[in-house]
Amino acid sequence: MKRLLLLLLMAAGMAWAAEEGDKPEDGKLETWKIANFALLAIGLGYMIAKNLPPFFRSRTNEIQQGIAEAQQIKRDAEKRAAATDAKVAALGQEIEKFRTESREEMQRESERIRQETARQITRLQQQAQLDIESAAKTARRELRNYAAGLSVELAEQRIRGRLDATSESAILDWFVADLKREGSNN
Q1: Where are the beta strands (DSSP E) in 34-183?
Q2: Looking at residue 78, what DSSP letter applies?
Q3: pLDDT tens digit string along 87-117?
Q4: Residues whose CB falls within 8 Å of the CB of residue 144, separated by 6 or more in sequence, listed in order
Q5: Residue 13: domain span
Q6: Percentage helix, strand, coil, to 5, in the chain?
Q7: What is the DSSP letter of 21?
Q8: Which pLDDT band, with edges at 50, 70 and 90, does 13 fall under?
Q9: What is the number of alpha carbons within 13 Å of residue 7 lying toward its C-beta?
């Protein structure tokens, strides 16, 4: 680049010197102009031929590398997109699988609860039956005790109503005699 600039400055200086100098004849001036132009054209051509092909090659390489990188990025992006699509598709299947498993789990849990409830009801019924039977036995026993108490009271009232002093003495004698007999048997 520096050479090109230097060459341009030299050509411009020569062209200026040719125009500003002593004004020679028109033919000589014309020859100098052609020579200056030819020198300028040759210098520019040399500089262009020397510098532009490497510039274009490096630019072409940069562009090709950019294209290759872009293609690689595109392939990577497509792979990631395909992987994401596969995950999304699998996610739908997993969601459906989860729903199915959840339904089955709910049915199993519902059946377990139903069975547990039936067992609890049966156990409570058995317990209630036992409680009822126990209460009935207790009530019967209390009723018997009450009835026995009433019978004893009634018998006592009847006996007291019929008992006089002579009957009482005879019963007492009979009781003492019975005790003596039992004492002698032992």
Answers
A1: none
A2: H
A3: 888 888 888 899 999 999 999 999 999 999 9
A4: none
A5: 2-161
A6: 95, 0, 5
A7: S
A8: low
A9: 16
pTM check: above 0.85: no
- Determine contact, residues 47/3, Cβ cutoff 8 Å: yes
| Tens-digit pLDDT profile for residues 146-181 | 999 998 888 888 877 777 778 778 888 888 898 888
d(CA 40, CA 46): 10
Do residues 36 and 15 touch, judged by C-beta distance below 8 A?
yes
How many alpha carbons lie under 13 Å from residue 184 in its C-beta half-sphere? 6
Query: In this predicted structure, what is the pLDDT of residue 79?
Result: 95
Within-domain flag for 183? no
Percent pLDDT > 90 in the chain is 41
Number of domains the chain contains: 1
Please tell me the number of Cα atoms within 13 Å of 168 on its side-chain side: 8
Q: What is the pLDDT of residues 128-143, one digit of tens each?
A: 999 999 999 999 999 9
Q: Residues for the chain: how many in total? A: 186
**Which one, of 15, 16, 63, 20, lies nearest residue 37 by Cα?**
15
Domain-embedded: residue 177: no
Which residues neighbour 32 within 8 Å (Cβ) at sequence distance 6 or greater?
A: 18
Does residue 88 form part of some domain? yes
Domain assignment of residue 186, yes or no: no
